[in-house]
UniProtKB/TrEMBL annotation:
<feature type="domain" description="FAD/NAD(P)-binding">
    <location>
        <begin position="5"/>
        <end position="293"/>
    </location>
</feature>
<dbReference type="InterPro" id="IPR036188">
    <property type="entry name" value="FAD/NAD-bd_sf"/>
</dbReference>
<protein>
    <recommendedName>
        <fullName>FAD/NAD(P)-binding domain-containing protein</fullName>
    </recommendedName>
</protein>
<dbReference type="Pfam" id="PF07992">
    <property type="entry name" value="Pyr_redox_2"/>
</dbReference>
<dbReference type="InterPro" id="IPR050260">
    <property type="entry name" value="FAD-bd_OxRdtase"/>
</dbReference>
<keyword id="KW-0274">FAD</keyword>
<dbReference type="InterPro" id="IPR023753">
    <property type="entry name" value="FAD/NAD-binding_dom"/>
</dbReference>
<keyword id="KW-0285">Flavoprotein</keyword>
């Protein structure tokens, strides 16, 4: 049998998981493509670099035993089954797994002034480079920092909590009166909003109108005319897919993680899912990205006639976040799924869609929440 070439684009959670799942197959040659100059790292650990003592080398991501190319992807020619790389190389493939991840959603140019953008005082917390820049700024001040955090999801909540615990002066700004409903469900989000209000300055139900450079940092003007002065403005507005050309806005996939193009699969933050059970959804956290990567690899092998059909991908992966001393945990998905409190003593909430439990979140109930993982979607595994 002729050896098939499977090309994996991206060396994050989804890409490395896909390559690792493919590596044992004797009938395929696997090439993992990482960005030029990138040392792959575990993105969920960048907080330790930004706010703690973790050295960057400690979060390096072990790579699977496959061929690795450090060469940024320029474009994909799906018709020719060929990928263009920044070096000018054009490797061919029999199957392609796109796992190029995501980029942080930042402020628009009409909100973020040029001087503020160039000041180094406005940052996301998405990459290792972000984390190193934040650490340098905070340690360089020599005093507790004034930090404004803009966002309402997991990163914003955990970042505000960590900075407050470290003695910094935190202002948490969110567009919603109850931030985090999409991420946690209303009951958990309401509980966390109350915890934030007790510990940090909150500006809920507010949007940013303009961010300007100031003598000692940045000045943010909110939609009610009030101003927030800070040494650092952290943007935590979620992510957007980072797909190579010719795709824009993510890669649409079916329930097997197949894209519209022949023998192309996508996984992780770049993949926009369309399936009958959950509709349209996208999850961008480490554990789910890794699970998607492994599933996409099995789908690719099946498409090449080298493995059985892995079946539909359904999100069951867990996550945890420590927020003001509370352990917030979840499994599955909450998007578009109404929250129903569990009839137990713990703070646990089910998220149901069409009569099926598709996600569970909770506070200080990790065991109960995680136990739901393999029971989601009405399937016993």
């Amino acid at each position: 049998m002729t050896t098939k070439h499977v090309l994996v684009l991206g060396a994050g959670a989804a890409g490395t998981a896909a390559a690792r799942a493919l590596a044992p197959s004797e009938d395929v040659r696997v090439t993992l493509v990482a960005r030029t100059g990138e040392i792959p790292y575990t993105r969920m650990l960048v907080k330790g670099v930004a706010f703690g003592p973790t050295p960057p080398e400690m979060i390096r991501l072990p790579l699977p035993d496959v061929e690795v190319l450090a060469d940024t992807v320029a474009e994909v020619d799906a018709a020719a089954r060929r990928v263009g790389l920044a070096s000018g190389a054009h490797p061919d493939y029999d199957a392609l797994v796109v796992a190029t991840g995501s980029a942080p959603r930042m402020l628009s140019a009409d909100v973020l002034g040029e001087e503020a953008a160039a000041s180094g005082r406005v940052s996301a917390l998405h990459s290792l480079e972000d984390a190193q820049q934040i650490r340098a700024l905070l340690t360089g001040l020599g005093r507790p920092a004034r930090v404004a955090v803009h966002g309402g999801g997991i990163i914003a909540a955990e970042t505000a909590s960590t900075l407050h615990a470290d003695g910094h002066d935190v202002v948490l700004v969110a567009r919603s009166e109850v931030p985090g409903v999409a991420a946690f469900g209303a009951p958990v989000a309401e509980h966390l909003a109350a915890e934030h209000a007790e510990r940090v300055t909150t500006r809920f139900g507010r949007t940013l109108q303009h961010v300007d450079a100031a003598d000692a940092g940045v000045e943010t003007t909110l939609d009610d005319g009030s101003r927030v002065e800070s040494d650092l403005l952290l943007i935590a507005l979620g992510t957007i897919p980072a797909a190579p050309a010719p795709w824009t806005g993510g890669i649409d996939v079916d329930d097997r993680l197949r894209a519209g193009e022949d023998h192309v699969y996508a996984a992780g933050g770049v993949a926009v899912h369309h399936d009958e059970a959950l509709g349209t959804w996208r999850i961008d956290h480490w554990e789910d990205a890794a699970a998607q990567g492994a599933h996409a690899a099995q789908s690719a092998l099946h498409g090449l006639g080298l493995a059985d059909d892995p079946g539909a991908y359904l999100p069951r992966s867990p996550y945890m976040a420590m927020v003001h001393g509370l352990m917030v945990s979840g499994v599955g998905t909450t998007v578009g799924a109404p929250a129903v409190p569990e009839d137990v003593q713990e703070f646990v909430v089910r998220h149901e869609k069409d009569g099926l439990v598709v996600g569970v979140t909770g506070v200080d109930a990790v065991g109960t929440v995680y136990a739901w993982g393999q029971r989601l979607h009405g399937v016993q595994v």
